């Protein structure tokens, strides 16, 4: 007999004594606070495991009697009270005074991003970008910065990954029940649920607004999956990076335009706006529309919007930048043009990348912001080069593209064993995340103690990996004997196997297969039964990325070859839970991208702060992260070969350098032990890794950089341009139009005789006559660059002198500016030897944020 089975969820009632578990389950504070997660897990460890570390789901499923027991257990209650008290203290902690002093009372930062990764229980992230955004919010909350994040609430999130018995990636999507997530519906001042309406071609699309609490930081998430919408429109926010170009533009409209409207519906007026990657750039359009409705001319409105906006670009791979066909833009924005007071042509110009067709979201973000940055020193330079056409006459190294190096949230990624060790040595370590000298205490931890922590982390990793692989291989149909054979090296004593981790998105430029260029040599390295090395691979390929999926198959096949079986292991389902285990437990963290395509990379930072040693190409953050302290380095750095030569050659050479390091340094150092079995040299390097990386590459340092270098600048510059009915913005706009028109006729020449030889520190005088071509004398400045190298690259490191504006007497008749003007520079040079100098004329206006924001300069 086949009886139907009906399901009914019976939710338990929280006893009043532990009622605040509900608050704790609804705040992502739990995602980085183990003591809070432990409050749930210990009530019923099995239920905790079945509910996949999700507190909200746990509270829906746990048995009533377990809750009742906990509410009567004095030990539990003491910990519960402690955790609540810590939570309250955390929420009340003041902003550090150095920042508080500089913030205006109404300052508020709005941060827009397409994905956020806080914890595996809120699966609205795919990888690096999302986790970075999550870490940003967490550090903002730790600091107490007035902040609101904006993103999308995906019904299915990103895919779950399985790898089948042939090494194929299988992507599956599941609907997520929002009742089981730490989110609530956002509520406006009148107590109503917030939703926003968006004009789509021929219809209105509604998006409802959810809210997540990240400690003190608030995150708004838009969702179109509501009854009022047509079926197709309900699906707009189903999948992260899913669908086609149309889905993508619709998602970005919901995020950018809907996001601004959601803020307004909640009565929020941000003073600084952050576009985190081009996906979110449509916020510029909505903010323009708001100002144009207040009767500002569009170009003036754009100055006001851009002044208060910061744009961060995250990829040097051109395919990573969204470009929409103009026809698609026409379809979605035609109806909006009258409200923007723009023609189609001027609208399209906002998204135009010089020499490229289509509407480019990076171009829109650049046009709509005055501060732009990449995410590491190397990436900042590469990005400046990539976007140099936006400032055509300015050398790339002087254009406004700068960098803020990424960092990771320490409490999220530092293993419990280490945070407890730090607690026991320096209780207040969390207040010193920006102070490198403070962290020298790590060097004084006794070697045995340090090594036992490392071994504990490895035990934990090995247990987790064995469980995962057993499950994975069982579902592939492998026998127990075969599975045992696969795990034979991992199951050695943890201190006797060297574990190398490689976990990242499978994209070809990350070169997961670089290790296998010379397989015979690798096989020889791995053949040593006494000193085994195991490589753990994990990562997802975007479902549409065929070469990425082929990489997974390639690794899978290699892992099954006799020479590599058990020594190369490929794990499915990379997510934050697996990432936390891997970065803490691996001995070596491998990163071998093709230079210079890794913008930053952050997993290596997580590994370093847990005492793993990075073995990485000097790209992204590692370009500045690799450091030596005395004789001891914090890892190994592979110098990239010059790619302008021959890619195949470079790959081979870098692959060979990688094996040379593994054979000659990594393996010998790891297996060299003292009489107690401790690898003393290795431990020394591992301590340096923590000491150098933790205080520099953490999210608190990163967010402080954003605040001091960008957010405060944006807020004050926005105020300045908006004050007095936008007087400064209007002035600046007029100036820019005039300069663009007259600049072709501007020229200058040096008119005084210079001595051939002077003494160091002696002053020299330069006189430059500029043909103003109708500009006013104060609208032009003359600059001199001094140095002894004639290559462009080195000019920047040289001394620079400039006139702020006209230096000879201005004309009395203000209506008729002079045809020419003499500019005088007095220069005292503290260099010696043969020097070169170059002179140039640049536009000058006090309301420019960057001296070359017009992209114009004339060299003499
Ligand atoms: C940190 C992290 C990433 C980013 O790592 P990269 O080094 O940038 O590749 C991706 N996915 C997860 C789950 C992470 O935790």
TrEMBL record:
The keyword Iron does not apply. Pfam families: DUF3417, Phosphorylase. It catalyses: [(1->4)-alpha-D-glucosyl](n) + phosphate = [(1->4)-alpha-D-glucosyl](n-1) + alpha-D-glucose 1-phosphate. The keyword Hydrolase does not apply. The modification N6-(pyridoxal phosphate)lysine is found at residue 606. InterPro entries: Agluc_phsphrylas, Glyco_trans_35, Glycogen/Maltodextrin_Phosph, Glycogen_phosphorylase_DUF3417. It comes from the Bacteria. One of its GO terms (molecular function) is pyridoxal phosphate binding. Residues 14-122 form the DUF3417 domain. Keywords: Allosteric enzyme, Pyridoxal phosphate. Belongs to the glycogen phosphorylase family. This is Alpha-glucan phosphorylase. It comes from Halothiobacillus diazotrophicus. The lineage of its organism: Bacteria, Pseudomonadati, Pseudomonadota, Gammaproteobacteria, Chromatiales.
């Amino acid at each position: 007999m086949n009886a139907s089975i009906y399901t009914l969820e019976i939710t338990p009632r929280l006893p009043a004594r532990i009622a605040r578990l509900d608050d704790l389950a609804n705040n992502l504070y739990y995602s980085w606070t183990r003591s809070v997660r432990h409050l749930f897990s210990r009530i019923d460890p099995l239920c905790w495991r079945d509910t996949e570390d999700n507190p909200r789901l746990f509270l829906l499923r746990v048995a009533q009697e377990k809750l009742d027991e906990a509410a009567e257990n004095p030990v539990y209650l003491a910990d519960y009270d402690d955790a609540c008290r810590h939570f309250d203290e955390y929420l009340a902690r003041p902003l550090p005074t150095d920042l508080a002093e500089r913030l205006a009372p109404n300052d508020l930062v709005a941060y827009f991003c397409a994905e956020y990764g806080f914890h595996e229980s809120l699966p609205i992230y795919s990888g690096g970008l999302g986790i970075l955004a999550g870490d940003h919010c967490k550090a903002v909350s730790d600091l107490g910065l007035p902040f609101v994040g904006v993103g999308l609430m995906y019904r299915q999130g990103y895919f779950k990954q399985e790898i089948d018995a042939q090494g194929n990636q299988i992507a599956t999507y599941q609907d997520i029940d929002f009742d089981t997530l730490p989110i609530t519906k956002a509520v406006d001042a009148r107590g109503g649920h917030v939703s926003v309406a968006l004009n789509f071609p021929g219809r209105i699309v509604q998006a409802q607004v959810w809210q997540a609490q990240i400690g003190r930081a608030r995150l708004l998430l838009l969702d179109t999956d509501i009854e009022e919408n047509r079926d197709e429109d309900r699906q707009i926010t189903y999948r992260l990076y899913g669908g086609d170009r149309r889905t993508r533009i619709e998602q970005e409209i919901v995020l950018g335009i809907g996001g601004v409207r959601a803020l307004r519906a909640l009565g929020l007026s941000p003073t600084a706006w952050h576009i985190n990657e081009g996906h979110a750039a449509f916020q510029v359009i909505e903010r323009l529309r708001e100002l144009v409705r207040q009767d500002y001319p569009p170009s003036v409105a754009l100055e006001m919007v851009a002044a208060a906006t910061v744009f961060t670009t995250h990829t040097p791979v051109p395919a990573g930048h969204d470009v929409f066909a103009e026809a698609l833009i026409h379809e979605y924005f035609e109806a909006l043009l009258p409200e923007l007071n723009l023609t189609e042509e001027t609208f399209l110009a906002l998204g135009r990348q010089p020499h490229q067709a289509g509407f480019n979201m990076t171009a829109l973000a650049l046009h709509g912001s005055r501060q732009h940055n990449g995410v590491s020193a190397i990436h900042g330079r590469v990005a400046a080069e990539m976007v140099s056409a936006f400032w055509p006459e300015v050398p790339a190294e002087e254009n406004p593209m700068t960098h803020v190096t990424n960092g990771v949230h320490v409490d999220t990624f530092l293993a419990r064993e280490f945070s407890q060790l730090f607690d026991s040595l320096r209780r207040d370590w969390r207040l010193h995340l920006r102070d490198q000298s403070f962290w020298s205490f790590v060097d004084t931890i006794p070697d045995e103690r340090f090594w036992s922590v490392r071994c504990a982390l490895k035990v934990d990793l090995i247990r987790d990996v064995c469980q995962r692989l057993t499950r994975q291989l069982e579902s592939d149909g492998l026998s127990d004997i075969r599975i045992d054979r696969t795990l034979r090296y991992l199951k050695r004593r943890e201190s006797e196997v060297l574990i190398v981790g490689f976990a990242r998105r499978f994209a070809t430029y990350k070169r997961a297969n670089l290790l296998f260029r010379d397989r015979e040599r690798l096989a020889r390295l791995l053949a040593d039964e006494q000193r085994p090395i195991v490589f753990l691979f994990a990562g997802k390929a975007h479902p549409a990325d065929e070469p990425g999926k082929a990489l997974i198959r390639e690794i899978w096949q290699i892992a099954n070859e006799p020479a590599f079986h058990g020594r190369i292991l490929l794990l499915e389902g990379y997510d934050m839970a697996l990432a936390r285990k891997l970065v803490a437990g691996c001995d070596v963290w491998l990163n071998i991208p093709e230079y210079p395509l890794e913008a930053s990379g952050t997993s290596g930072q997580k590994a370093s702060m847990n005492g793993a040693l990075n073995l990485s190409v000097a790209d992204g953050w590692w370009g500045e992260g690799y450091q030596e302290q005395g004789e001891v380095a914090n890892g190994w750095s592979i110098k990239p070969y010059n790619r302008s030569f021959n890619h195949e050659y470079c790959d081979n050479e870098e692959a060979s350098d990688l094996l040379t390091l593994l054979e000659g340094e990594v393996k010998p150092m790891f297996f060299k032990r003292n009489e107690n079995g401790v690898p003393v040299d290795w431990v020394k390097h591992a301590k340096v890794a923590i000491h150098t990386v933790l205080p520099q590459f953490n999210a608190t340092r990163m967010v402080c950089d954003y605040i001091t270098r960008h957010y405060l600048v944006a807020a004050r510059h926005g105020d300045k341009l908006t004050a007095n009915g936008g007087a400064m913005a209007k002035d600046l706009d007029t100036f820019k139009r005039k300069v663009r028109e007259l600049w072709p006729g501007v020229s200058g020449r040096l008119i005084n005789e210079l001595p051939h030889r002077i003494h160091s520190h002696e002053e020299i005088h330069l006189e430059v006559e500029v043909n103003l071509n109708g500009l006013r004398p104060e609208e032009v400045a003359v600059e001199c660059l001094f140095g002894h190298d004639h290559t462009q690259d080195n000019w920047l490191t040289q001394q620079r002198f400039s006139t702020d504006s006209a230096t000879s007497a201005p004309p009395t008749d203000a209506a008729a500016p002079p045809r020419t003007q003499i500019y005088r520079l007095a220069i005292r040079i503290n260099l010696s030897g043969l020097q070169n100098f170059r002179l140039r004329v640049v536009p000058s206006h006090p309301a420019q944020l960057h001296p070359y924001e017009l992209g114009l300069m004339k060299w003499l």
